[in-house]
């Protein structure tokens, strides 16, 4: 593949997807990375240092990641020029090297460019946003029993209102759509038609089923107890309600699930329960009875809200990791759940834990479990010694405040 402005490292090997579905990962895979805006400049170098140290230690120097910097966001504009927020080079590199990791990217509110994070997911068709939420012993938490929270969120990543089909009030497109809805579809309940902006929420059977299928497959592989479909189908009957119905249909047709009692809950032959809950009730129950939930499958916007809320239960957004995956093509981009936290940019202050743990999921995806285990051990030990960044330190008694890079060193020391 030829690139316009970037050059892959001289040494290193591409990760390949094999015909049996597995990934072929050499001892020196090339991994593209996007530094990210805002605190990206703080957390990304720390993440790379921790991953490199873990790989070196786990494999006695026999394995090594060959990092390949690619660009998006503000750094892309500096490197490629005005309006080049997501260069073609970047998409090509992700496609060519299959597995990449990124820092957060800024999205302006109410105007300006649409989300580059969402664009990467949509353009690469990374339909499953997988966000595991677990508790690390000793982490400060606002809930009484944070150790009861152990969930893996599967958030649909390509549809829903994130499709960006929106028409601002006052534009000709908005008027055209409104006229169509009122005159041809007989819509009477747009409360203030003259001043309403409009948005469209596409939710498909195919998109819902592939996401729910990946959640059920994960539950089977990881021996989990249940998969819960989280939706707001009482209000949005044909989008969120259909998501729920398609989920049960898939469980029965593809996984031989049997209906429990009157239904609609059902059970797979291996005992995994498929159930559903309305999103607002779910958001209160994750605080009151988190142990009733395990793998979660939900739509894009619900998944966004649920991710940050669950992260808060186990110590905050500073240690909430994520992955964007297409299980058919094998393409995967790993990224933290949090954003660019601009007020902390360049201060070497924030918690790099989210991006480091995203790196841990990436190592597991590559089959490098020994290195992943070392990093988790290092994080656990650093937290239990109360040597932590500001977000944990302000909530812990007797903790030592570390900078972002110092926390990275602490993890390495404790591996
Ligand atoms: N995937 C992505 O790239 C994402 C990008 N974004 C984008 O990021 C920008 C900022 O979004 P915003 O809503 O402020 O959300 P952020 O997640 O960036 O920050 C909100 C708050 O979360 C806390 N926080 C975030 N990251 C860390 C960390 N690493 N360590 C410790 N605390 C952390 C801070 O809390 P406190 O103030 O209490 O210290 C911070 O003020 C927006 O442009 C948004 O669109 C948002 C989410 C995801
Ligand atoms: O793209 C953005 O700016 C926000 C994305 C986000 O909040 C998320 O992925 O959780
Ligand atoms: Mg979010």
UniProtKB/TrEMBL annotation:
Q: Binding positions for D-threo-isocitrate?
A: 115, 117, 121, 131, 155
Record-listed NADP(+) binding positions:
106, 338-344, 351, 390, 394
The cofactors named for this UniProt entry are: Mn(2+); Mg(2+)
Q: Does the keyword Hydrolase apply?
A: no
UniProt keywords, alphabetically = Glyoxylate bypass, Magnesium, Manganese, Metal-binding, NADP, Oxidoreductase, Tricarboxylic acid cycle
Q: How is the cofactor bound?
A: Binds 1 Mg(2+) or Mn(2+) ion per subunit.
Q: Which GO terms describe its biological process?
A: glyoxylate cycle; tricarboxylic acid cycle
- Residues bearing N6-succinyllysine are 102, 244
Q: According to the UniProt record, list the residues that bear Phosphoserine.
A: 115
Record-listed E.C. numbers = 1.1.1.42
Binding residues for Mg(2+), per the UniProt record? Answer: 304
Keyword flag NADP? yes
Q: Which InterPro entries match?
A: IsoCit/isopropylmalate_DH_CS, Isocitrate_DH_NADP_dimer_prok, IsoPropMal-DH-like_dom
Could you tell me which Pfam families the record lists for this protein? Answer: Iso_dh (PF00180)
Swiss-Prot/TrEMBL catalytic activity: D-threo-isocitrate + NADP(+) = 2-oxoglutarate + CO2 + NADPH
Site described as Critical for catalysis, positions?
Answer: 162, 232
SMART domains per UniProt: Iso_dh (SM01329)
Q: Where is the Isopropylmalate dehydrogenase-like domain?
A: 30-411
**What molecular function terms (GO) are annotated for this protein?**
isocitrate dehydrogenase (NADP+) activity; magnesium ion binding; NAD binding
Residue positions, PTM N6-acetyllysine: 144
In which family does this protein belong, per the annotation?
Belongs to the isocitrate and isopropylmalate dehydrogenases family.
The subunit structure is: Homodimer.
Q: What is this protein called?
A: Isocitrate dehydrogenase [NADP]
Native organism:
Halalkalibaculum roseum
């Amino acid at each position: 593949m030829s690139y316009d402005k970037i050059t892959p490292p001289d040494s290193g090997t591409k990760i390949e997807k094999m015909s049996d579905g597995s990934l072929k990962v050499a001892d020196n895979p090339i991994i593209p990375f996007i530094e990210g805006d805002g605190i990206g400049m703080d957390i990304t170098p720390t993440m790379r240092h921790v991953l490199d140290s873990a790989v070196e230690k786990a494999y006695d120097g026999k394995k090594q990641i060959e990092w390949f910097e690619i660009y998006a966001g503000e750094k892309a504009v500096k490197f490629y020029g005005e309006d080049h927020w997501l260069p073609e080079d970047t998409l090509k590199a992700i496609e060519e090297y299959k597995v990449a990791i990124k820092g957060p990217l800024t999205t302006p509110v109410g105007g300006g460019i649409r989300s580059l994070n969402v664009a990467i997911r949509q353009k690469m068709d990374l339909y499953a946003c997988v966000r595991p939420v677990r508790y690390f012993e000793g982490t400060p938490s606002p809930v009484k029993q944070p150790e009861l929270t152990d969930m893996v969120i599967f958030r649909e990543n390509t549809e829903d209102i994130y499709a960006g089909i929106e028409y601002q009030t006052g534009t000709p497109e908005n008027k055209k759509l409104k006229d169509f809805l009122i005159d041809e579809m007989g819509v009477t309940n747009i409360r203030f038609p003259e001043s309403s902006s409009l948005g469209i929420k596409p939710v498909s059977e195919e998109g819902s089923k592939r996401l729910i299928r990946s959640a059920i497959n994960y539950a089977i592989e990881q021996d989990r107890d249940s998969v819960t479909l989280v939706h707001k189908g009482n209000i949005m009957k044909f989008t969120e309600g259909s998501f729920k119905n398609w989920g049960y249909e898939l469980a029965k047709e593809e996984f031989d699930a049997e209906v429990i009692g009157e239904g609609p809950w059902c059970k797979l032959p291996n005992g995994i329960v498929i159930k559903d809950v309305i999103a607002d009730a779910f958001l209160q129950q994750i605080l009151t009875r988190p142990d009733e939930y395990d793998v979660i499958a939900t739509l894009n916007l619900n998944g966004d809200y649920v991710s940050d809320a669950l992260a808060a239960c186990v110590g905050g957004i500073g240690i909430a990791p994520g992955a964007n995956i297409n299980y058919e093509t094998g393409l995967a981009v790993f990224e933290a759940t949090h954003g660019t936290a601009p007020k902390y940019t360049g201060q070497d202050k924030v918690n790099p834990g989210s991006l480091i743990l995203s790196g841990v999921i990436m190592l597991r995806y590559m089959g490098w479990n020994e290195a992943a285990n070392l990093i988790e051990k290092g994080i656990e030990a650093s937290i239990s010694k109360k040597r932590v960044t500001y977000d944990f330190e302000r909530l812990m008694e007797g903790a030592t405040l570390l900078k972002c890079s110092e926390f990275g060193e602490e993890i390495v020391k404790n591996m």
